[in-house]
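Forum > Structural Biology > Help requests

Title: Can anyone predict the 3D structure of Pyrroline-5-carboxylate reductase?

Hi all, first post here. I have the sequence for Pyrroline-5-carboxylate reductase but no way to get a structure on my laptop. I'd be grateful if someone could post the C-alpha cells.
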Amino acid sequence: MKIAVVGLGHMGKALAKGFANRCPVSVYNRRKIKFSGENIRVYEDLKEIVRDSDVIVLATPHTSYPELLKSVKEVKTGKIFISVAPQIGSKELNKLHDKFMILIPNTPVAINDGVMGATNVNLKEEEYREVIKTFEVLGKVYDLKEEDTMLLSVMAGCLPAYFYMFMEAAADGAVLRGMERNLATDLMTRTVRGCCDVILGDVEELGKLKGKSTTPGGLTIKGVHALERGGFRNAIIDAINESK
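Reply #1:
Sure, ran it for you. C-alpha cells for Pyrroline-5-carboxylate reductase below:
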C-alpha cells in the first residue's frame, strides 16, 4: 500500500519518520517546511498526493477535515483515509468519506516502537486488516472498540509527556544530591528500560512487582512513602481521568 502523511506537525513527522525507516512514504504540508530524508517524497500539491496514494493519514487538526476532503473530492474515490485525531469520532468521519478508519498513535512510532489503537469506521474487513498490517512496521497496533481507542490516546499518547515529567523531576532530585544531570538521565533511562522489560515478561500485578523492590525499613519504601504523601498516585489517576 502506498502511504501518504498529510500534515507535518509533531505526530505527522513521527509517522513519516517511522515509515521512512522501513519503506517509502509521501508527505504533504500546507505550509512549506524543511523535511526530507531517505524514502521520503515531498509533495507540494494536495490533490496530487491523494491521487498517487492508497492510504492517506490525516495528521492535521480535525477541524480541517471537511474542507480538506472537499478540496480533493475529484481524486478521493476509493482512497482510504485515516484519522489520528482523538477529538473526532466515527459518526462524524462516516459522514465525510466512505473509506475511513481511526488510528491513534504515539510519538515513539518515529523509532518503530510505538503503540497504536485502531478502530474501523466503514472499511471492508479485508481493507481494515491490510491497513493494520501495514502500520505494524511502526510498532504494536491494537484493534479496539472506539471508546478504548480514544482512551488509548491518553494512555499511549499523553503518558509519554507525564513520564518525561517524572524523569525530569527524578533527575532534578539526583542533581540536588550532587549527581551530574547527564549521568542521572542515563541511569534513569537504563533503569526504566529494564523495568519495562520485566513488566512485559512478567504476568504478576504491578503492585507485586513494586513489593519485590521494597524491603522493611529500606530506602525504597521510604521513597514510596514520600511519593504517597505528595499525592503521586492520585495525581497520575487525575491526569489520565482529566485528559479528555
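The two ends are 33 Å apart (CA to CA). The mean pLDDT is 93.
Shout if anything looks off.
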